[in-house]
Amino acid sequence: MPRIVTLAATAALLLCLLAPAHGSSEALCAEHRISARAVQTASDVQAFVHCAAAYLETHGQEEARRAFHEDARWRHGPTYVFVDEIGKAADQPLTIVFPPDPSLEGTFVTAVADSLGGDLADETNRLMSLVDSGWLYYSFRNPQTGRNEPKASFVIEVEWDSRRAVIGAGVYSPEIPGACSAEEVNATALATAPSEASLHQFVRCAAQLVEEKGFSAKGELESSPRWRRGASYVFAMDLSGNQVLSGSPVRVNGRALHEWGGKSDPMDQFGGRNMVSVGDTFGEAVIYYMGRDPRTGRDQAKVAVLKRAVAHGVPLIVGAAYPRASRTDAVEPPCEDHMVTALGIRNRRDVQAYVRCAAEYVKEQGEEEAYRAFHEDPRWRHGQYYIFVNLISQADGEPLSNAPVFPPTPEDEGRHRVLVDNFGTDYFFELHRVMSHGRSAWLHYSFTNFVTGRSEPKSTYVVEIDWNGQRAVVGAGIYDPARPGTCYGESVNAASLEADPSESTLQSLVRCAATAFATQGYFGTVTLESDPRWREGSIYLFGLDTHGNALFTGAGRHSGSNATGSELRPDGADPFGGRDFVRVGEIFGEAFVYYRAPNPASGLSEVKTSLIKRVVIQGLPTLIGAGYYRDGAQ
To answer: 615, 568, 572: which is closest to 596 by C-alpha?
Structure first.
């Protein structure tokens, strides 16, 4: 039986495990090492910059300069390391390291003014006057496309030739709202080069359209060439599984066939597993199924992304898919290029790297050593994160419900078990089903979290391996506290952020509040302002329209708080030197903001880190946010 813990202890344990590791860049790089060619997301960039700072500290300036220019670890495509001086008051800083154009090194930093307002060097100086590391948001020339595109860069303060400087790197993320251009994101691009990355982007942009236009988006999504070409098209379902739109050109009596088929129940092919509930709970999920190809009329294996969207207060599941056999995913980077330990896991992409490293370890070290390491070594086991191995049956056999490696309860290893969760069907049945579609996959299910002691939704990534001559998978999973179906009030709340002020707990709070805001609409502002879940001590939520005007704020109920202006414009003042962080939130979808603001708990002006997130309320884009004061941060 799992150990019983109090809710307070549960929250404390969970937050401790989810919070970013504190310490030097060298310690952080030891837990998450990544090369330039493996960088894809903002979290990748953050790990990459910490490793670059550690390299500089360990090897010195001369070697670091050489490596940042020449070594593939530090430069690939649009990813590279830069170093800029932090300018003194009224002084223009110098460019120190800039691999795309070394001729600029030693000259004044080129002025970068974009539609967000202000100069990038000024914003860097402002940022570093408040914190010793953080995020910059701006537009910059993407060397791969030749166009100015939204870019998020993470920077850390370092010393270079006894001068204050920043070391940093950035990413042109395809996942942000501002990247949903018709020229880049369309059905033709997906059909031409199908991959999970392009599929995620295609579905996210379709979901954004549904949230903005509601059901009036149906005509555009079903007929526009942007959203439909060949086997690539958008579909949407309500939470009962009824299909409300489909871009599939195949019609019977004027109606599209259900995406998942089935004469009576489209869930039949999943063995009764409720995939609509999976999409609703996890917010975004990769699933595998048999679907009809409108070009041939034949069924084929497909991989889809489902995304939860709220259209004028009504939750829907938006999706798209491509034939799995035709995918052209780039080869996943080897562990040498992307290594994550159990302690370093922060998100689902980290889990993928962790599992692929484990698969390499089994192949290189053998089953006996892998068994020992997966049970004993902290690289492979920490808190809720561990590596398991499951056997899978041959094509004509029954699923084998046993696990030769299961560190949380070794006494269960080798036993036949049945694990049926609230999505329906046995876990091992689902494992066998998805592995009939390929050699790696995502599973979404509910399982006991051995940290909290309760059953929680879990996303698990598995890779097929050979284990003592038998077909098997190596895998690991993550319990994400900010998924729509996992936003538990006892673990994600203002009190938790007040007790543990960190970027990770802040993200969980804001993302869960955004889910509540999107579902409840403007009627939910009273709850978001006053419910103790969202307001504790110096922690509160705030909402802004796209002009920066306050929609609501929990600060007004605190003594000593400033009730005039809005969160990002207290008393109508501009703490950002002309930089428009409302626009930043619109373009990037989610952004960290650093500024000085009155702490409602103390009445003093203090440095604050806030996260703002774009959310569409009844068709209108808005921002919701919260923050913590740096004096309390660890």
So the answer is: 568
Q: Residue 455 contacts by C-beta under 8 Å, 6 or more apart in sequence?
A: 421, 422, 446, 447, 448, 449
Q: Check residues 423 and 92 and name the one with the higher pLDDT.
A: 423
Cα separation, 471 vs 439, whole angstroms: 11
Residue the block writes with tokens 């949903």: 180
DSSP structure string for 311-328: ETTEEEEEEEEEEGGG--
pTM of the complete model: 0.90
Summarised one tens digit per residue, pLDDT across range 13-27 is: 333 333 334 468 999
Question: Which pLDDT score is estimated for 70?
Answer: 98
Please give the C-alpha separations between residue 98 and each of 51, 101, 103, 128, 353, in angstroms, as whole numbers: 17, 6, 8, 19, 29
Q: Where are the alpha helices (DSSP H) in 547-618?
A: 581-588
Least confident of 9-23, 470-484, 536-550, 581-595: 9-23
> Which of these, 45, 53, 46, lies nearest to 24 by C-alpha position?
53
Between CA 14 and CA 481 the distance in angstroms is 9
Phi first, then psi, for residue 317 (nearest 5°) are -110, 115
Average pLDDT (272-296) is 92
Long-range contacts of 116-119 (CB under 8 A, 24+ apart): 116/579, 116/580, 116/583, 116/584, 116/587, 117/578, 117/579, 117/580, 117/583, 118/576, 118/577, 118/578, 118/579
DSSP string for residues in 33-73: EE-GGG--SHHHHHHHHHHHHHHHHHHHHHHHHHHHHH-TT
- Burial profile 423-451: b = 16 or more Cβ within 10 angstroms, e = fewer: bbbbbbbbbbbbbebeebbbbbbbbbbeb
C-beta of residue 281 within 8 angstroms of C-beta of residue 261: no
CB 439 within 8 A of CB 331: no
Q: What is the mean pLDDT of residues 264-268?
A: 69
**How far apart (Å, rounded) are the C-alpha atoms in residues 21 and 382?**
13
- Assigned token pair, 70: 């020449």
Mean pLDDT of 399-416: 86
Question: Taking 90 as the threshold, does the pLDDT of residue 341 lie above it?
Answer: yes
User: What tens digit of pLDDT does each residue of 196-232 get?
Assistant: 899 999 999 999 999 999 999 999 999 999 999 988 9
According to the 3-state scheme, what is the secondary structure of 370-396? HHHHHHHCCCCCECCECCEEEECCCCC
pLDDT tens digits, one per residue of 128-161: 999 999 999 999 888 888 888 899 999 999 999 9
Is the Cβ–Cβ distance between 548 and 622 less than 8 Å? Answer: no
Candidates 571, 623, 633; CA nearest to 598 is 571
Q: Are 517 and 524 in contact (CB under 8 A)?
A: yes
**Mind giving me the DSSP string for 161-208?**
TTEEEEEEEEE--TTSGGG--TTTSSHHHHHHS--HHHHHHHHHHHHH
Place of tokens 């879990």: 458
